[in-house]
Amino acid sequence: MMNKKLAIACGAILLGATSMAQAELTANIGATSNYLWRGVSQTGDAAAISGGIDWAHDSGFYLGTWASNIDWGNGSGAEVDFYGGFANEIGDFGYDLGLIYYYYPTSSFDDSDFTEISATGSWKFLEAGIAYTVNGQADSDGPFSNGDIYYHISASFDVAETWSVGGTYGYYDFDTSKSKWDDVYGDPDYGHIQLDVTKSAGDWGDFTMTVSKADEESGSDDVKFLVSWGKTF
Question: Please, which contacts does 15-22 make with residues 24 or more away whose CB atoms are closer than 8 Å?
Fold first, then answer.
């Protein structure tokens, strides 16, 4: 008869192996002529290189991290995101509940870290979501401290075997103090619209051409054209 402790250990190993078999670990790399985040350039309209690692379980739970170079006009730095959540599908309806921490390790980006919770729903070619800032290191009277809400709605279509087209409208509603922020700097709330055309190149990854336009309150209302490449493996 097998020793009881040995049986428990073997069972744990088998359980761990089964759990790993139900999970997938992937990595991604990317390059873009301009890193846009919610309609606003994070690199001063310059190029960016990015990469990340994701772990996803068949149950729907996922964890990941992603990093990119940035430049907000005060010197170059880095953005490192840590996130996790639960995503699943019920027929044609999909949903994703997540938490993300935006970390800026460079000294010139002190007091910039913040945390969001988000909820996204999708149905066939449509998607809509909301993100809420629960905590941030910025001044409590200004943006990215807490209470900010970002809404978006998007649609995407496959127009050919390896081509797709997508459009997004987003709106940022910042929870700022009118007497201490808005009267000095102006209302920071803004909307933006974006159009993406993506070409899948199989093992060579995906190439995306983007046109984006944000309201003047975003800091730059110029029409932006960019090209991006990404690959997951």
Answer: 19/57, 22/57, 22/58, 22/59
CB 145 within 8 A of CB 132: no
Q: Which of left, alpha, beta for 111 (phi over 0: left; psi -120 to 50: alpha)?
A: left
Q: Per-residue DSSP letters for 16-58? A: HHHHHHTEEEEEEEEEESS-EETTEESSTT--EEEEEEEEEET
pLDDT tens profile 47-105: 999 999 999 999 999 999 999 999 999 889 999 999 999 999 999 999 999 999 999 99
- Quick one: tokens of 62? 């996922």
What number of residues does the chain have?
233
Are 200 and 224 in contact, with CB atoms under 8 Å apart?
Answer: no
pTM of the model: 0.89
Q: Write out the two tokens for 86.
A: 């639960």
How many Å apart are CA 108 and CA 154, to the nearest integer? 34
With H, G, I as helix, E, B as strand and everything else as coil, classify residue 6: helix
Distance of alpha carbon 212 from alpha carbon 39, whole angstroms: 6
CA distance 133 to 116: 4
The residue behind tokens 């496959």 is: 158
Q: What whole-number distance in Å separates Cα of residue 191 and Cα of residue 31?
A: 25
